[in-house]
Design a protein that fits this description.
single chain; mainly alpha; 2 helices
C-alpha cells in the first residue's frame, strides 16, 4: 500500500529530520521525496474525496 504525505520543511535538515521520523513508524519500509519550490497547481484533495463519496452513495442506491 502506498501513502502520500505532504510536509512543509523550513530547510533541508528539517526535511531530513521529518523523513527520519516517518521511517521510524512501524511498517514504513522506504520513503521517496519530491520537492516543489512553489505550488504549481492548487491542492485539490477535498474535491477528489467528495467525488469518491458521491460515487459510493450512487453505488449504494
Amino acid at each position: 500500500m502506498d501513502l502520500l504525505i505532504r510536509v512543509i520543511a523550513v530547510d533541508a535538515d528539517d526535511l531530513y529530520r521529518v523523513a527520519g521520523r516517518i521511517l521510524a513508524c512501524p511498517g514504513i519500509v522506504r520513503t521517496r521525496t519530491a520537492l516543489a519550490m512553489r505550488e504549481l497547481l492548487p491542492f485539490r484533495l477535498c474535491g477528489v474525496i467528495d467525488r469518491l463519496g458521491d460515487q459510493g452513495t450512487a453505488k449504494g442506491r
